[in-house]
Each structure stands twice: as C-alpha cells, then as structure tokens.
Amino acid sequence: MKITFTNTLDVDIEKPIPASKVLPDWYKELNSYMGNKKDPHKAIAENQVGTAKRCMPLFDAITSGYLITSVSDVYVKQVDGQPYYSWSGLEQIEFHPTEQLPVHPQNKTHKISFPKWNNFWGIKTPKGYSCLIVSPMHRDLPFTIFPGVVDTDTYSAPIKFPFTLNSAGYEGLIPAGTPIAQVIPFKRDSWEMEFGSDKDLKEIKNIHHKLSSKFFDAYKIFFRQNKEYK
C-alpha cells in the first residue's frame, strides 16, 4: 500500500519521514538491560531484567507511521499568565477561540485561544484507508496535539493540528524540524464486540506459558509481527 504526501506550497519544505528513521534520543541512549548491561548473558547471570528498550509494543508505537515536522522556529513566551507565540518564516501557527472547546480536559494552559500547527502537506491513502493522527509518541515535546482520525482516502487537503502546551508557564524555542504529528494509516473495517469463551481462555494461558519460557524477548520471538513504513 502507498500513502502520498503532497507539498501544497511553492517552496521546498522538509518532507515527512518514516517514524522509524528518527528515534528519540532517550531511546537510543537507553541500555537494553538494567544495571547498564548490554550483554543478555551478563544480565541473566546477575539477575537483571530488560529495560523498556526490550519492549516491542513501545518500539512499535515509536516507529509506527510517519512524522510531520514544523517548518519554522516557534518561540513561546508568557504574557500575563498566558502563552504567546511568534515564529520565523512561514506562518506556522493559527488559533481557535477557546469557546469552540471550553471544557476539554487537555486544556490547562490556554484560556483565550487554542493554537494549532499549520501543516502544508496533503495526505492521500488508498480507498478504504484512514489515518490516525496523534502526538509523536514517546518523545520529549513541550506540547500535545489533539488526536484525530481523518478519512484520507476522500479528504486529501492539509490537516491542521490543534495542540496545548504540556506545562503552564512554559517558555522556550520549538525549533524548525520538530516532529509535530505522527500519521498512522489503517484500514477501516466494521467491528462488533463479543466476550471470550473457554477456548479463548486456554489460548491466553498458552500465551503466558510461552512468555515464561524465555528470559528475554518472548513477545518478539513468538508473537510480534513486522510492520513496514517506508
């Protein structure tokens, strides 16, 4: 399957990139085993356990989909207890009045207006596929965008990303090239909830047995499926 990103400007801007190409610094620096161990044999000998770096669900979250990045430096300063934004170059941010969303639990930092990242990339997916758009996962950012689902097989215009600051009183530079949204395509389908049977319970017990058969990486060895975003 192919996802198409279209630059809607007359100038070149940084392209979206597979999330797997831009791992967070904290993740790259983290050792695979507690006690600063890098060798699994030494970790086993010293009764150490794996760190979050051995967690494949976390890795799959970090590397799923594609990252859209900011195109201009943005500076945030506080004036009378409210954040004000300035930017260089292209207009990076627009605003919604808070009356449009007065009670959202995420809004603890903006009382006058909600900022939103301007995005200059149209997104197109094949028929039957939509995109889940979330804040870049497990990354050290001063903001969080509002998650959303867009049916990008029928709507391919640029999507803007409303956000709030994570900390009241935040001031600082958000440099151009900062990941602002993670775009994860998925196939739409109809779902119906049901409850498991004795057969399902037996399957779960068998899974637990397999998990307990390895010191490390049992989920990766027995259950994880490869995912590709190029």
Explain what the structure shows:
There is one protein chain. The protein has 230 residues and is an alpha+beta fold. The chain has one domain: Deoxyuridine 5'-Triphosphate Nucleotidohydrolase, Chain A. The protein is built from five helices and 14 strands. It is globular, with a radius of gyration of 21 Å.
Percent in strands: 25-35%
CATH fold description: Deoxyuridine 5'-Triphosphate Nucleotidohydrolase, Chain A
Radius of gyration: 21 Å
Whole-Å distance between the termini?
Answer: 10 Å
CATH architecture: Distorted Sandwich
**Using DSSP, what is the number of strands?**
14
Largest sheet: 5 strands, antiparallel
Q: What do the pLDDT scores average to?
A: 91
Multimeric organization: single chain
Report the uncertain regions: none
The overall number of domains is: 1
- What topology, given as strand order, has the largest sheet? 2-3-14-9-11
**CATH class annotation:** Mainly Beta
Count up the helices. 5
SSE layout:
Blueprint: E1 4-7, E2 17-18, H1 25-29, H2 40-45, H3 56-63, E3 66-69, E4 74-79, E5 82-87, E6 93-97, E7 113-117, E8 121-124, E9 129-134, E10 143-145, E11 148-150, E12 161-165, E13 172-174, E14 179-187, H4 198-211, H5 218-222
Brief descriptors of the model:
230 residues, alpha+beta, Deoxyuridine 5'-Triphosphate Nucleotidohydrolase, Chain A, five-stranded antiparallel sheet
